[in-house]
Amino acid sequence: MGAAARRVAKSLVYQQRPAAAVEFATTAARRLTDGLTDRGALGLSTLGMLYLSAALAESSQERTPGRVAAAGGYVAEAGDVAARQGADLDEDYTQFGPTNVTLHRMDVLLRFEDGWSALEAAEDARPEALAGMTREAAGRAPGRRRARLAADPTQGRRRSSPAPDRRAGARGGARTPGDGEPRQGRGPRDPGPRTGLAQACRALWTAGMTQVLYLIACAAGPTQHIDDGVRAAQDDGWDVCLILTPSAATWWEPRMEELVELTGHPVRSRYKQPWEKDALPKADAMLVAPMSCTTLNKWGAGISDTVAVGIPSEAVHMGVPVIAMPYFNQAQGAQPAVTRSIAALREQGILFLDGPDGYQSHPPKRGNPQAFPWGKALAGARRQTGDRCPRT
Ligand SMILES: Cc1cc2nc3c(=O)[nH]c(=O)nc-3n(C[C@H](O)[C@H](O)[C@H](O)COP(=O)(O)O)c2cc1C
After folding, report:
1. Ligand 1 mean position, distance from CA 353 (Å)
2. DSSP state of 238
């Protein structure tokens, strides 16, 4: 019951209803307190996580003094529950306990952009507890990538795919040219010195508090450099699963293993067979980028003959935030079907990023696929998920 209440609260946040999520989580926590307390550690961890869900929902809204105080209060309630529980446990895969409460306190403070207090909060976390939590989470986390990161957070970048000859030198220093969004803070794979905050952030990353992003790419120019998009999303704190259209998959066929290695997940491009299990963890959000003119028009017409359209076209009607950013030229965009398809997508709640907030179509033969503005796409993903994704 309590665990179901947590899931409802989470889904309310995804539906852009954080205030309702706070109300729901706190009401459930208060009503269920006695019953959950009687159930020992399992009940206490559920109760504590309900308060932490309320804190996260509260802090996914614009900062006001009232919200800062309320979110702090929910974290404090969770802290009391953790104190009653007494130790860091992993009941019902919650990893609830004093250390997890400290991580949430930091997360809430960072969301309210109070880095100094987050740093102070990090001092409460015992390094051994954080390290233990990281190992623990890595052991049970889906995907090889988390495990690799837990072993060595610098590994992702070192192992990332070498640029093929045709691209050698073209990547240069700027990783996402034209995205106009400077990175904030240190990434989880940054080999810099580990302060308490950095270590705690790393634990946030590996403790399963990282969210899963399905990055869905079509056979449009920037997909030649889709590894750049994957890395940009990973740097933004996402656990990235890559899905390609069948046409896009042919572009990467000789180097597909590199993408598997980079993401730590299988790369999907075809519908699974009826007897096959889902290969990917559940998505917290989906970003369809770069989106081709063909995929846009198929989706707008309700045709989902590729898994790349099928997954997000259903997901958006199941409460998952879906963002799409196109890449095609002005001549392709002049087709009347394009305007209709964009309207059809927006009508369904998809955040379609064109114009100044997204990709502005280029004149024919004047595209620059390497300058695809991944920063804008990821900013859209953050907006749609209420800034839930921790940028470490
Ligand atoms: C080298 C190459 C580059 C292409 N670039 C684009 C592009 O940038 N945008 C686009 O909409 N279509 C582009 N196309 C056409 C699409 O690949 C084609 O419409 C394909 O059917 C799209 O299928 P998909 O959306 O399932 O990936 C390109 C095709 C080729 C061969």
Report:
1. 18
2. -
User: E strands along 83-230, which residues?
Assistant: 212-217
Find out if CATH 1.25.40 is the number for domain 2-125: yes
Looking at the domain 211-384, which fold is it?
Answer: Rossmann fold (3.40.50)
User: How many angstroms is it from 376 CA to the middle of ligand 1?
Assistant: 21
Measure 218 CA to ligand 1 centroid, in angstroms: 7
Give, for ligand 1, the residue of 226, 294, 296 to mutate: max count of ligand atoms closer than 8 Å to Cβ.
Answer: 294
- Whether 332 lines ligand 1, by a CB cut-off of 6 Å, is yes
| C-beta of 353 in contact with ligand 1 (< 6 A) | no
**Hey, do 2-125 and 211-384 end up sharing a CATH topology, with the first three levels equal?**
no
pLDDT by position in tens, the chain (length 392): 777 887 787 777 656 688 998 999 999 999 999 999 988 888 898 899 999 999 988 888 888 889 999 999 999 999 999 999 988 887 777 788 888 898 888 888 877 767 678 777 877 777 777 766 654 444 444 333 343 333 333 333 333 333 333 222 222 222 222 222 223 333 333 333 334 555 555 555 555 557 899 999 999 999 999 999 999 999 988 999 999 999 999 999 999 999 999 999 999 999 999 999 888 999 999 999 999 999 999 999 999 999 999 999 999 999 999 999 999 999 999 999 999 999 999 999 999 999 999 999 999 999 999 999 999 999 999 999 875 444 43
DSSP string, 264-320: TSPPB-SPPPTTPPP-SPPPSEEEEEEEPHHHHHHHHTT---SHHHHHHHHHGGGT-
